[in-house]
Amino acid sequence: MLCLLDLDAFFCSCEEARRPDLVGVPFCVGGNPDGRGVVATANYAAREFGVGSALPSAEARRRCPQLLFLPVDIAHYRGASRAIWAALADVSPAVEQTGIDEGYLAVPDGADPAGFAAGLQRVVADVAGVTCSVGVARVKVAAKIAADKDRIEARRGKNIAKVAAARKLVTLVYYGLRDGHIRALDRDRAA
After folding, report:
1. Into which CATH architecture does domain 11-70 fall?
2. pTM over 0.85
3. Cβ-Cβ contacts under 8 Å for 102 (sequence gap 6 or more)
């Protein structure tokens, strides 16, 4: 089994961790709205207005006039990322970081996958004060889907695990994790 760990709205989460006054305030990290800049990422309060990654900054301001624009502090985000992934390497037998805010981790032999994934979330919170979504599956694509579902369900306030099946031939089991509430569902292969 493996986990896909995705640091939620990572640049914005880093900013909220060091500036708690930003929590709940629509803001983004990215370019100047008076120039040709784009949004690198937006926090969830800004996403409610349709502001998201790669949106031209001028359009982001039109959609959300009260939107705060913070400059990219890549050195800070890289430092937080390095600290997080170093700590994760201490708890997983294999780590494949695929980006500054995402990567795959092997579940140790004999470990409860759901418990291990919940532990990963605690490590991330303890190290950097940010949240992450975790998907657990036997294959990478299923783990990625699971992590995406975890984030969506968490944003909706639902802590429900889902089951994904491909072509009724392969069973893809994943666990949605948030706030320690875990329910694993399994479905056998279709006949």
Report:
1. 3-Layer(aba) Sandwich (3.40)
2. no
3. 4, 5, 6, 7
